[in-house]
Amino acid sequence: QVQLVESGGGLVQAGGSLRLSCAASGRTFSMYVMGWFRQAPGKERESVATISWRSAVTRYADSVKDRFTISRDYTKNTVYLQMNSLQPEDTAVYYCAASQLRSSWSATDFRSWGQGTQVTVSS
After folding, report:
1. Can you spell out the DSSP letters for 58-89?
2. Please, which residues bridge with residue 82 across strands?
3. What is the pLDDT of residues 61-97, one digit of tens each?
4. Could you tell me the CA-to-CA distances from 37 to 8, 110, 119 in Å, in that order?
5. Which residues pair with 24 in a beta bridge?
6. What SS3 state is found at 98?
7. Is 61 exposed, middle or buried (0-12, 13-18, 19+ CB in 10 A)?
8. Do residues 118 and 93 lie in contact, with contact meaning Cβ atoms separated by under 8 Å?
C-alpha cells in the first residue's frame, strides 16, 4: 500500500502559477507510474499528467500541454505538478495517484490515491 499526501493548492488569478506536491510513503518501491488527475464539480475525473517513477517519461493531457510540468524527486519520494498560465477552466480538485502498471493513464489504472487539493482560478 502506498500513502499519498498532496499539498500546494489554493486560489490564484487567471494567468498565475501554482505548484502542487505529492509526498509518497509506504510501499513506494511498488510504484511504476505517478499521476495527477483533476475533478471539477459535475464532471468526471480526468487525467492531467503522468510520470514513470524510474525513467521520468512524462505524458500530458492536450488541455495542459505546454502549461503544466510534472516532475519527480526520486530521493524525496515526491511528485510535483508545476502549473503555469492557469485559467478558470483549470479549477478543480487535483488528486495524486500511484500505479503499479507500466502504461497507466486512465484513473482506473491507479490504485493508490491522495485526498485531493483544491485549485481555484479566478477570472
Report:
1. EEE-TTTTTTEEEEEETTTTEEEEEE-S--GG
2. 19, 69
3. 999 999 999 999 989 999 999 999 999 999 999 999 9
4. 14, 10, 12
5. 4
6. strand
7. middle
8. yes
